[in-house]
């Protein structure tokens, strides 16, 4: 049986699948050629990340497909219900990237409180005399320890972020439309652990009391999670991180809030316009950007490949 991994798959995933007798093709086929390629090669499993779109038309054009697999969490690029209605199984790897995304949140938070994105752009060249001036400009950094982190969306990634925040000595407030409370286990290198229960709170309280706010919600069917009204309720000088989905923050309201210093900095891995962020976002000195790389670590990609392979083997060989 043939598998097309159109957006790539880890070596560990390929090895598991090949050992189980599957042929794995990792050629990157252009979106408009995918249907032809699948039909010409009688592909049974199509694996994608976020780049390849698997819409109704593609599903209709490919009767050989038995499984569509998404390496990662968000299924917005796949017409899931339609595929299921055509007896195609749709799988993803929800837990494999949580730790990597959570670490990227802290990369943005630490960068924000110590001005790293801006200082990188402004370091002096040899002979430049502005060093003292720069030192002064970047001298008012703050610590994360002791501050309050508001986590909007308290699912897998939100809870992974909470663990790291607690480890740093931060206070955590979480808000979720569905989750009422979660048990967080902090595990230490010496195998000791501490178990804490965190109850979620109303969004309004989170917005009012957080020094930093991070979003971990799925793409919303309608409306922004954070728009002008929400910014107005927040503390002055709050820091915002979004490593979830573009479109959950109103970027026009964000830029306005940054300009009036309501928001002190924003760290964004995802944007309303992907892959190219709006120029106002791109050029803002208080915004630190990363190109949707939350899950792009060696460890997460390894777990994603392995998890996909195990599911395929279990579905097609039992
Ligand atoms: P999850 O389903 O475990 O958790 C999401 C939580 O958000 C749920 O508990 C849900 O009840 C809650 N929620 C939904 N709408 C809400 C709202 N309006 N207000 C408050 N809570 C709300 O998902 P997860 O695995 O934690 O992933 C979270 C997000 O991270 C997803 O959008 C996913 O696509 C994204 N993600 C991004 C990257 C990246 O590369 N940056 C990688 C992986 C996942």
From TrEMBL:
Residues 7-318 form the D-isomer specific 2-hydroxyacid dehydrogenase catalytic domain. It comes from the Bacteria. Pfam families: 2-Hacid_dh, 2-Hacid_dh_C. The keyword Metal-binding does not apply. Gene3D superfamilies: NAD(P)-binding Rossmann-like Domain. CDD domains: PGDH_2. Residues 107-294 form the D-isomer specific 2-hydroxyacid dehydrogenase NAD-binding domain. Keywords: NAD, Oxidoreductase. Belongs to the D-isomer specific 2-hydroxyacid dehydrogenase family. This is D-2-hydroxyacid dehydrogenase. It comes from Flavobacterium luminosum.
């Amino acid at each position: 049986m043939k598998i097309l991994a159109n957006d790539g798959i880890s070596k560990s995933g390929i090895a598991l699948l090949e050992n189980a007798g599957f042929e794995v093709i990792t050629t990157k086929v252009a979106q408009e050629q995918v249907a032809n390629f699948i039909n010409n090669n009688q592909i049974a499993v199509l694996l994608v990340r976020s780049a390849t779109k698997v819409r109704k038309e593609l599903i209709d054009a490919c009767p050989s497909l038995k499984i569509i697999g998404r390496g990662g969490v968000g299924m917005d690029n796949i017409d899931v219900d339609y595929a299921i209605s055509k007896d195609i199984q749709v799988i993803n790897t929800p837990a494999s990237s949580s730790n990597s995304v959570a670490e990227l949140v802290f990369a943005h938070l630490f960068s924000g409180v110590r001005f790293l994105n801006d200082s990188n752009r402004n370091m002096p060249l040899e002979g430049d005399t502005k060093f003292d001036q720069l030192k002064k400009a970047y001298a008012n950094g703050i610590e994360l320890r002791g501050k309050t982190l508001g986590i909007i969306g308290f699912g897998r990634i939100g809870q992974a972020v909470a663990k790291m925040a607690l480890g740093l000595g931060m206070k955590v407030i979480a808000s979720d439309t569905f989750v009422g409370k979660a048990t967080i286990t902090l595990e230490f290198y010496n195998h000791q652990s501490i178990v804490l229960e965190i109850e979620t709170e109303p969004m309004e309280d989170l917005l009012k009391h957080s020094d930093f706010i991070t979003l971990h919600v799925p793409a919303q069917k309608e409306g922004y999670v954070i728009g002008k009204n929400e910014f107005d309720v927040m503390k002055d000088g709050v820091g915002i991180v979004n490593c979830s989905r573009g479109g959950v923050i109103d970027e026009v309201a964000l830029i306005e809030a940054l300009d009036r210093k309501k928001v002190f900095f924003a760290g964004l891995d995802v944007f309303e316009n992907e892959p190219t962020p709006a120029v106002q976002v791109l050029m803002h000195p208080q915004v630190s950007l990363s190109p949707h790389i939350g899950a792009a670590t060696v460890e997460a990609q390894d777990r994603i490949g392995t998890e996909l392979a195990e599911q395929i083997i279990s579905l097609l060989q039992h």
